[in-house]
Amino acid sequence: GSSDLNEIIDYKNQHYAAPNPKMFGVAKGKNVIIIHLESFQQFLIDYKLDGKEVTPFINSLYHSNDTYSFANFFNQVGQGKTSDAENMLETSTYGLPQGSLFSMLGSDNTFEASPAILNQTSGYTSAVFHGNAGSFWNRNSVYKNFGYNYFFDASYYDTKPQNLTEYGLKDKLLFHDSVKYLERLQQPFMAKFITVSNHFPYALDKANTDFKAANTSDESVNNYFVTAHYLDQALQEFFEYLKKSGLYDNTMIVMYGDHYGISNTRNLKLAPLLGKSASTWNKFDDAQMQRVPFMIHIPGNKNGGIQQQYGGEIDVLPTIEHLLGINSQPYIQFGTDLFSKQHDQTVAFRNENFITPKYTVIGNTIYENSSGNVVTHPSKKLQKYVDKQADKVIRELSLSDTLNNKNLLRFYIPHNFTPIDPKLYNYKNQMK
Ligand code: GP9
Ligand code: MN
């Protein structure tokens, strides 16, 4: 118990990355809208299928100088997929090595999650909008423990069959039909939208399809572009609403892809569309495909641009806290602010493989990022560096697991933090 916690506290203190003074508080007091881009991979950005941009609107955001756009941002999920991404983004702790943390620990654990932190430090109201059953991934329980004030699940939307795809309400309807609730949230708010239409197997009715599928021998690969295009249009419509309503100017919009849409086995079908050969495709290529978008859009900011630093989902919470002018130091978080000079650029995958700006390490194999070649005879210096990173990755993952498996945040109450009592939250008949 307490010696575990002391080791975790030592680690997080020594790993802490101080805010970049140029970035601290640049979005202070703004509303925060977080848009979860289901299964959206980085390769879609600027990608053209048969000469046609798949996601022109997201591309325009990516290149806007109001957006901090990350070119080397990776998903770090395990088997908990979407729920692991949510957990990392909102607690800066890792998902579990097996299963979903939301499902296994989410009902009973104590968390110090972003809805609670933003509320208690800065008066934010929080809400999640998601057109699937609230029980999926145990969200009904987890969100209460995170301190979400509102959770609008499928029961708040018109879910007649033609409004649905496999995992819930179609994205355009999710955004459109959430406005009536969004407009009633006390500001400043933090609102998360979890989209679902771009989810395997990427099925969408003809009426919503205006992009030509790819032509591989795998239907899901082909249709991935079609549903990604639909998601792009849904996002554009939502931005139009935000501008019309006036919310836009006072809101920071954070967008991220949660995990891959095309699995490693299916990458072999995708390879030719990326100008690669399936016969030389390898684990290095699979690892590079774990890049997902991470974009922070701050209207009127004008200082954005494409960021090259390496990072991942674990780093989002301290980054957002610092942008909002909130000190992240009191909390136990395993990620570091992407804008900090001390940001840790080693990206851990849940299986202990990792990527650094120069190397991709899979098991005992070191690949050089610039060439994709295996480093067959690493110098002593390189081997020492890699071993040190590997030790850190293993330690960080295991400390996160200890924290969560032993529910140690019960015993760690930051100054001025009031632990969340889930009994005070009720997601039935909200705003009715
Ligand atoms: C369902 C959705 C999908 O509610 O969030 O989760 P995933 O299958 O991607 O983990
Ligand atoms: Mn997902």
From TrEMBL:
Substrate binds at H199. Residues 30-326 form the Sulfatase N-terminal domain. The keyword Metal-binding applies. It is found in: Cell membrane. Its main location: membrane. GO terms for cellular component: plasma membrane. Keywords: Cell membrane, Manganese, Membrane, Metal-binding, Transferase, Transmembrane, Transmembrane helix. It is a multi-pass membrane protein. Mn(2+) binds at E38, T82, D258, H259. The active site is at T82. The keyword tRNA processing does not apply. Pathway: Cell wall biogenesis; lipoteichoic acid biosynthesis. GO terms for molecular function: metal ion binding; transferase activity. Belongs to the LTA synthase family. This is Phosphatidylglycerol--membrane-oligosaccharide glycerophosphotransferase. The lineage of its organism: Bacteria, Bacillati, Bacillota, Bacilli, Lactobacillales. The chain holds residues 147 to 578 of 638 of the full protein.
